Amino acid sequence: MAGTISRRGAIQNLGAAAACGLAGSTRAQEYKPQAQVKLSKAVARYQDAPKGNESCGSCPYFVLPKGCVTVEGDISPTAWCPMYTSFAALDRGAHSAGR
Length: 99
Ligand code: SF4
Description:
Elements: H1 7-30, H2 41-44, E1 62-63, E2 67-68
Antiparallel strand pairs: 1-2
The chain binds iron/sulfur cluster (SF4).
Iron/sulfur cluster binds at residues 46, 56, 59, 61-62, 68, 70-71, 75, 79-81, 83-84.
């Protein structure tokens, strides 16, 4: 009959769900946090000059006084690389919710 689930089918489904849960927990136990790896300046195609009005100083990856989340070494606020973005956490609009 259409729309009914046999007792055997229900038990098989429960077994499959339990197996999926077990597999998921095994993977979670195997998880090891990875150290943050930064790109070298050469790989990141870092340049010492800004590109137009884009520069590290206005990039959200820039870390004062002379660091970057994604590129290793001393980073100048007047430099630039192709990972430059103007995205910032507040760009997601949460700060203006309800307005
Ligand atoms: S432009 Fe590139 S190097 Fe500069 S802060 Fe942003 S991601 Fe880092």
